[in-house]
C-alpha cells in the first residue's frame, strides 16, 4: 500500500516512533497540536502498517509501534529466566485482572488464603500491577489494578479480551475447585466499586 504523505499523519507517526512508552490520543495531541485529528490519523496509520514488519497497536487507551507478532521470534534473545512467578502470584494476578480494582482483603477472600506482601511487590516490580487508589470504606484499604504493561505483555487490547470461564474450561485450565470458585460471586459492582465487607484490624 502506498504511504500517504499527509503532514498530520506524518506528525502523529513521528511522535509515536520517538516515544519511549505507549501514548494516548491526548498525549499525542500535546505534540502535534489541537488542529490535528489524531484519532483519524491513527486509523489511517493502522491501515498503512497492516501486514508490515512493524505494526501500530492499541493497548487500552494507548498506542505504540511494535514488531509484528509473527516476527517477534527474530528479535527474541535466548536468556535464562532468573525468576518465575509463584502459583500465589499467578493466582493473585488473575484475580486482579478479572476483578479490578480490588484490595488485598478482597484478593484473600477470593483465594481463600492470605497473601504475603511480597506477592504484590513482585507483581508491581514486573510492571503488571499498580496501586489504584483507596477504597472509600472504613480503613481506606489500598486497591490494585493491572497496567498497560500487563496488556502489552499478554497481547491484549483491553481487559475485555481476557478469556471467559468457558474458554478456560475448554482449554482444560480449570480444575473442579477453580470452576466452583468461578461460579461464586464475591461482590456486585455498584457505581464502579465492589460492595465487599472487609475486616480491618
TrEMBL record:
It comes from the Bacteria. Coiled coil: none annotated. One of its GO terms (biological process) is chromosome separation. InterPro entries: ScpB_csome_segregation (IPR005234), WH-like_DNA-bd_sf (IPR036388), WH_DNA-bd_sf (IPR036390). Keywords: Cell cycle, Cell division, Chromosome partition, Cytoplasm. SUPFAM superfamilies: Winged helix' DNA-binding domain. NCBIfam families: SMC-Scp complex subunit ScpB. This is SMC-Scp complex subunit ScpB. The gene is scpB.
Amino acid at each position: 500500500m502506498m504511504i500517504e504523505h499527509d503532514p498530520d499523519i506524518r506528525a502523529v507517526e513521528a511522535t509515536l516512533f520517538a516515544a519511549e512508552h505507549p501514548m494516548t490520543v491526548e498525549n499525542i495531541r500535546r505534540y502535534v497540536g489541537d488542529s490535528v485529528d489524531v484519532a483519524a490519523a491513527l486509523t489511517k496509520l493502522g491501515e498503512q502498517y497492516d501486514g508490515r514488519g512493524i505494526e501500530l497497536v492499541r493497548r487500552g487507551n494507548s498506542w505504540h509501534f511494535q514488531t509484528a507478532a509473527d516476527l517477534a521470534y527474530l528479535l527474541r534473545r535466548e536468556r535464562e529466566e532468573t525468576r518465575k512467578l509463584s502459583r500465589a502470584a499467578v493466582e493473585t494476578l488473575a484475580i486482579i485482572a478479572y476483578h479490578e480494582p480490588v484490595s488485598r482483603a478482597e484478593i484473600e477472600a477470593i483465594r481463600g488464603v492470605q497473601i504475603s506482601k511480597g506477592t504484590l511487590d513482585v507483581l508491581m516490580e514486573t510492571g503488571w500491577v499498580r496501586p489504584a487508589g483507596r477504597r472509600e470504606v472504613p480503613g481506606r484499604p489500598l486497591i490494585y489494578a493491572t497496567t498497560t504493561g500487563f496488556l502489552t505483555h499478554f497481547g491484549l487490547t483491553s481487559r475485555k479480551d481476557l478469556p471467559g470461564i468457558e474458554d478456560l474450561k475448554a482449554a482444560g485450565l480449570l480444575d473442579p475447585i477453580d470452576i466452583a470458585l468461578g461460579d461464586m460471586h464475591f461482590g456486585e459492582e455498584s457505581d464502579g466499586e465492589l460492595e465487599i465487607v472487609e475486616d480491618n484490624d
